[in-house]
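ok, trying the design again with the full structure, not the truncated one.
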């Protein structure tokens, strides 16, 4: 599928899922606890993104000073940036995805899978 198709589906399906989850969680625990959870995840997520972003920046600078190609920290930094955007977007699905991207092991698995996918289509020189 083309990327435009994926984006269109994402912009239609994700909000529908988020609305459904807001309704379900709101009816089970109430509107105020639900809103509290959404606001809390935004604050905690912002703190985690800031902390991990600084650590990734230090790793980037370390690898660069040693003369290496800091591809790992660049990819991790991009995923941390996406995680921050997802955590600031109100919703339970986006929060869960953003929090998952803040787990270094998850980011590394995504990076390796992406590298394999690119290597299967292009010539990759390391």
């Amino acid at each position: 599928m083309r990327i435009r198709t994926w984006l269109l589906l994402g912009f239609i399906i994700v909000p529908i899922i988020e609305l459904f989850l807001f309704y379900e969680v709101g009816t089970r625990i109430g509107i105020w606890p639900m809103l509290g959870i959404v606001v809390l995840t935004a604050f905690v997520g912002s703190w985690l993104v800031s902390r991990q972003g600084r650590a990734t920046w230090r790793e980037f600078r370390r690898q660069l000073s040693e003369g290496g190609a800091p591809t790992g920290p660049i990819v991790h930094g991009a995923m941390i940036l996406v995680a921050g955007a997802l955590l600031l977007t109100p919703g339970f699905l986006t929060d869960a995805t953003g929090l998952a991207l803040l787990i270094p092991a998850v980011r590394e698995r995504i990076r390796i899978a992406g590298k394999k996918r690119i290597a299967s289509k292009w010539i990759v020189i390391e």
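Keeping the full-length input from now on. The mean pLDDT is 90.
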